Amino acid sequence: MKKIILYILFMTPQILFSQIEIGSQPESGKISFPVYDGTRVCDIYYDPQDDELVKKISAIFVQDIERVTDKTGNLVTDEKQMNGNVVFIGTINRNRIIDKLIDSKQLDVTPILSQWERYIVKALDNPFPGVNKALVIAGSDRRGTAYGVFSISDAMGISPWYWWADVPVLKSRSVFLKNDDYISKAPSVKYRGIFINDEDWGMKPWASKLMDPSLNDIGPRTYAKVCELLLRLKANYLWPAMHECTGAFNKYEENKLVADSFGIVMGSAHCEPLLFNNATEWDTKTMGEWNYKTNKAGILAQLEKRVKSNAPFENVYTLGLRGLHDAGMIGDFTQQEKVINLQNAIQDQRNILKKHIDAPIESVPQVLIPYKEVMELYEKGVQVPDDVTLVWPDDNYGYIKRLSTPEEQKRSGRFGVYYHVSYLGEPHNYLWMSTTPPALIYGEMSKAYRTGADRLWVVNVGDIKGCEYSTNLFLDMAWNIEQYNYETVHKHPAQWYARMFGSRYLDDFQEIWDTFYHLAFIRKPEYMGWGFEWNSRQAGTEVLVDTDFSFFYYREAEKRLKSYEQLVDKTTQILAEIDRDLKPSFFQLVYYPVKAAALMNKKMLTAQKNRLYAEQGRAKTKTLADSTKLYFDRLQELTDHYNSMLDGKWNGMMSLKQGWFSSVHKMPPVERIKLKNEPIFGIYVEGDEPDKYCPKPFAALPAFNSYAPETYYIDVVNKGGQILNWSAVPSEDWVILSQSSGETKDEQRIFVSVDWEKRPVGEYVFGEILFISGNKNEKVFISTFKPANVKKEDLKGLFVEQNGYISIPAADFHRKRDNREVELIVIDGLGIENKSIQFGDPLKRLLNPRASIDIDVEYDFYVFQSGTVKVYTYALPVFPLNPLEKASYALTVDKGLVFKPDIAAGEYSDTWKQNVLRNYTVSKSELYLPAPGKHTLKISGITQGMVIQKIVIDTGGLKDSYTGPESTFVE
Fold first, then answer.
1. What pLDDT digit, counting tens, does each position of 115-156 carry?
2. Where are the alpha helices (DSSP H) in 116-261?
3. Cβ of 175: how many Cβ atoms within 10 Å?
4. Which residues pair with 122 in a beta bridge?
5. Residues 268-316 pLDDT 10s
6. How far are the Cα atoms of 399, 414, 441, 470 from residue 417, in angstroms, in the given order?
7. For labeling, which of 78, 85, 86, 648 is most exposed (least CB within 10 Å)?
C-alpha cells in the first residue's frame, strides 16, 4: 500500500486531483471510512428507484474496488441486507436512505441542493442500526452522483484512462477514505464534451473489427466505452462520429439508450440540425435535394421525425442550416437570401422543438455554431433567439475566430466554444497525434470563458487515441478553469504523466513534453511534407517538397534532428526502466508520439538532404537514401506494434495514412547517383549556400566575432567511389582546425575556430584555409571582426549584430513597463523560442503606444553600421477578440517612427494558411538607425492580449530559414 500512497498522495501535484484522499489505514482523529479494511469490502447500496445511471455507476464502483483490492463487495438494494460498513450512493430525493439522513440532520445537502452536477461525500459513524460506518455519496442530480463515485475511484488509483490507454490500476491491501466530508464545486462550464470525428482511418476500422463486429460499424459497445470515459473525466456531452463511412448514431437504437444510461447528453455537429446526420441519413434519391428553398417540407419532415424519437432523452439541439456534411448551403443564393434561409430554418426548427418537447422553448438547450460560412451569415444579420447558445468555433487550428462583444454578452443563452485538437481540412490535416501546446489551449479557452463562453465546450478529438492528454486537459479546464493559469498549465503535462508512470520522472516529463510541444509548435509532424492538401490543382493530394528548415544556415535542420534524438533517448530510457505492466500505456501515451514524430522528421529531413546531396554529386547520397527508407520502415513497424500489442486490442486504430489526400505517410522521393570509381574532392562550408547556376569563385565561412566566439564547420566531401585523402593548412596560426588531414569514404566535418589571443590587432583580420587532395586545391576564406573602439565588456548584456542580423527572443527583454491594470505576462511553453510575452489582458481596452502609462517592453541592441534596417516581428496568429477590436501592436527604435502592424488575416486567405501551419505571423517594418552603437527597440501593446514570440533585425546579412537565427545575446 505504500506504493499507492507514493503515487497518489504525496508525490503528485494537487492540480490533478479531486480533494478526495485515500490511505492505507484510518486517519487519526477523523472518521476514516474503510472501503476495504484488509478483511472485508464494504457493501454498496443504491435505491432501485433512483436513475438508471446510478444503478450502473454503483455496479461499476464495485468493479473499481475489485480492480484495486482483488476483492468483490456486495451490491445491495434492500436496507435489511446492509451491515457493517456501507457506501450509500444516490441522488437527493431519489434515494430513501440518503433522504432519511437528510431528514435526521446527519447529512446537510443545502450547499448543493437543486444545483447542476454537484456532489457531497461524507463519512458517518453508526448512522443506522447494524451499520458501523457509512460513506454517503449524494449527488444534486444523476451526473453529480456519478462524479462523486468516480472521484473516489480516481483517488483509489483508477485512471479515467484505465481502458482507453491501458493505464494499470494500482493494487492495495487496504483502502481507507481519509476525508470527513467533501463538497464539490460547481462546474465552470455547463456542457462539457468531445466530438469523435474523421473516424475513417482509426476508430471506424478498429470498432468494426473489435468492438461492434456484428454491425461492422461504430456501435453501442464502442459508445459505452466512450461514455464511461466521459463520466470519469467529469464530462457530460458528446457529438458522435458522423462521416459517410460510419452509420449515423441514431441508425442503431441502442446507441442512444447506452448514452442515456451513462447520463451523457447527446448533441450533433454544426452541420447536423436537430440531431439529424445529413451526411448518411439524407437520401437525395428518395428525399429530394437538401435545399431549404425548394425542399423545405422534405427537410423538416426528417428533422421532426428525429426530434420525436429522441425527445424523451437529454439532448442539446443544434440549430442552423448548412449543406450536406461539411459543405456550404446548397442553392444559388445571394448572401441576403442565405441569411433569410438560415433565419427561417432556425425558426422552423424551434417550432418542431415546441411541438415535441413539453417544456418552454427557452428551457430547451439549443445551440447555433457559426462555423465556416455561417459566421459570415451571422455577421450579415442573422437574428438568433436570445435563449440560444452561440458556440464560437476556432479556425480549426486552435485560434478562436471571434468571441462575444459586450452587447452580445447580455444574451441569456450565453456562449460556448467548438475547439480542435485534431482536424481534417484545408490547408492541411492533422489527425495523427495531438500536438497543440497546452498554453495555447489554455490561452484561447480562458479568453473565451471570460467573455461568457460558460455554457458549452466541445473539442474535436478525432479518434480519441492520440489525443488522450489534450482531451483530459480540455475537460479538466471545462470542469474547473479557475485552477489554471499559464504557470500551472505549463507544468500540467509533466504532472499528468508522472501520476501514471512515477513521480521520479516528473522532471524528465517536464523536459520531454516541453521539447515535444515546442518542436511540434514550430512544425507539426503531419506538416513535414511541406505541401498543401486540399489543393484543387493537384486533385487535393499533397506533393512532398523540401522543407524550409535550412541545412545551410544557423544549423537549423541539424538542431531540430538533434533535439528529436535527445527526446527519443530520454523516452527510450524511461521505457526500459518502468515496470512491465506500465509499458503498454507508456508506449501509447509517451513513446509512440515521441518516437513517431522523431521518425517522421528524420524521414523527411533526411530525404531532403539526400536530394540536396544528389544535386551536389556527393558520395553520401546513397547512404541518405538508405537511411530515409530505414526511417520509413521503422515508422511503419512502430505503428504495426501499436496495433498488435495487447493481443491486438487497438488493431486498426493507429494509422499513418490520415485523410484522403495524405502523402506525408509515404516514402518521400529520394535519389541515387552513379559515382566514378575514383576519389573526387569537394568542400562545402557552413553559412554559404552553393549556387548551382553561378558558382562562387571561393568559399567563405561566416565572420568570426570576438564578442561572441563561434565555431563554424567545413565539410570535406568525397564525390567518388574510392577513399579520399585530404589535408588542410591554415594560413595563420590563429586559425584552429579540429582536424587537419584525413581519409574519407563520403564526408568529414571539420570545425574551425579562432584563437583570439594570437589573432593580430585590427578591426578586420582575414585568413584562409587551403585544402589539398591529390592535385586539387580549394581555399576557404576566413574573416574575423574585433570592433576597434568597442570592448567585449561593453557589449555584455546586449543583443549584438552578428553577420548582418540581430535575433531577440521576445521574452528576454531588458525592461518592461506595466501596472496593475495592464500586466505583461511571460508565457512558458509557447512560441518559436518556447517562451513568449503577452501584452495585457485580451479582454481589456485598446492601448495607446504613445501614452506614458501603458505597457511596453524594451530591448537594448548594438549595431556596427547605420542606415535602414528591416525588423521582423513574429507574433501568435490570434484573431481580434470580436469585430469591434483590432489585432495590432506597435514598435519603434529609440524615439523614431512608430509602426503598427495589424496581424489579422482572413480565414482561408493565403496568409492565414501560412500562419496556421507555422504558428506565427511575421510583420516587416523598416526602421532607420542614424548611427552605429547602442539602440533600444520598444514594443508596445495596442490590442491587449497580443503575443509576441521573437524579433529579428536584418542589417543586411539575414539568410533564409524557417524560424530565423538563434539569439545573438552576448553573455
1. 999 999 999 999 999 999 999 999 999 999 999 999 999 999
2. 142-156, 203-206, 220-232, 253-261
3. 27
4. 136, 181
5. 999 999 999 999 999 999 999 999 999 999 999 999 999 999 999 999 9
6. 11, 11, 12, 15
7. 78
Span 534-582, pLDDT tens digits: 876 666 789 999 999 999 999 999 999 999 999 999 999 999 999 999 9
Q: Is residue 288 helix, strand or coil?
A: coil
d(CA 242, CA 252): 13
Return phi, psi of residue 639, to 5°: -70, -40
Q: What is the pTM of this model?
A: 0.96
Q: Read off the DSSP letter of residue 858.
A: E
* Residue with grid cell 503535462, as numbered in its chain: 493
Q: Tell me if 469 sits within 8 A of 205, measured CB to CB.
A: no
Q: Apex CA 271: angle with CA 266 and CA 272, to 5°?
A: 40
**Quick one: which H or E segment has residue 23?**
strand 22-23
Q: Which three cell numbers stand for residue 60?
A: 461499476
Q: Which residues contact 259 (CB under 8 A, 6 or more apart)?
A: 223, 227, 238, 266, 313
Identify the bridge partners of residue 769 per DSSP, sorted by sequence position: 730, 780
In DSSP notation, 716-777 reads EEE-BSSPEEEEEEESSTTEEES-SEEEESSEEEEEEEE-TTTSPSSSEEEEEEEEEETTEE
Angle at 347 between CA 342 and CA 348, to 5 degrees: 95
Contacting residues for 462 by C-beta, under 8 A, at least 6 apart: 196, 197, 198, 199, 202, 421, 422, 431, 434
- What is the DSSP code string of 568-615? HHHHHHHHHHS-GGGHHHHIIIIIHHHHHHHHHHHHHHHHHHHHHHHH
Strands (E), 105-178: 119-128, 131-139, 175-177
Residue 920: CA atoms inside 13 Å, Cβ hemisphere, count?
Answer: 24
